[in-house]
Amino acid sequence: MEDRLLKHGSIIFIASVISFFFGYVFHFYMARALGPDNYGILGSMLSLFYIFSVPSSVITTTLAQVVSEQKVNMEYGKIKSILLISAKKLVYIGVIIFVILVILSPFLKKILNLPSEIPVIFLGFSLIFITIVPSPRGVLQGMQEFGSLGFNMLIEKPLLVLFGIVFIYHGMEVNGAILSYGISTLVIIILAFIPLRFVLEKKSEPVNLSVYKYASPIFVLFLCITILSSIDVLFVRKYFPADMTGYFTAMKMLGEVIYFLALAIGVVLLPKVSELNKLKLTHGFLLWKALIYFVIPLAAILSAYALAPELIITMLFGKDYSSISGYLVWYGLAMGLLSLTIIFMFYDVSAKKTAFMYPLILFTILEIFLFMVFHETIGQIIGVQIGVFLILLASVMIIRRRYEGYT
Length: 407
What we know:
With 407 residues, this protein is an all-alpha fold.
């Protein structure tokens, strides 16, 4: 089990890194192909898209936890029912979102200064498929089919780039860029169902899909870590010149390598711990294995950021970005502290222990407040993160020691 943790974690991490790289390629291409005005429209539409990304992650993770418990008893008929019921419900939700956006499109056109309602309508169409994809992916994760899940994640962004280029070539401009999200996700959904054929061949069995008892802590977890890891760039954009926002974003991309590593381990850890917890077997060893697998590459990454920050940034982004290099190791440290906390929280939520939610919510609010007060320099921004993430990590560890039943 513990050896597979490293293998499966590596699969998800590599798939995440490749996906992240092609996501950057997509934006690099669109910024030049669309020009500043149309690329700004795309950015506005993607802001709406990101609002839906947290619920999507929650649904994926929640289904993974439910499926992992059914897998313990090899109840594949119930897993089939979970897959079909969740997919059907998500189709309804996706269509409702589409209708709402169509109705609101004149209003959104006005407040976002769009040339027409079409970008909003295309976004709504794309969100139908983006809403559905958590169903097969959540089942793959819960079944611990990490090879198939990793492949599905790996090809997602290359398909986005491919369809984006094709639509731009045919003159669809920003509408084509938005539509590429929906079409690429449709292909991803079809491909995700292929490795689940053996489940679909089983006879459906009645199942009570009461995912809400899982969803609440998972929603809080994903919402808070998304805010903690993402809101910094919004404050930099608000309080600093435009070029500094670009420098900070480049540094952030390098810091997110650490963040993605922790998420990859967490994605693998959750169904494994849930399965052992269902069987009432010990699973604390998985946490320590996960921490070891994270800390070793973390130390290597931070060492590289400390020894050659300017070289790393110049090689990847060019000399224009080298002025931010002095902050790289400190930003990496901040992401490392947050990522360690994420691994602990993923483990705890997998074991149905949710006391961490209280400090998590508190320090998420505290980070926002401190950014509003301390934003004179980039050093202050990163200093706030290091302080908040360090105390959050300490708080989570103290709670784990005080509450009976924590490993």
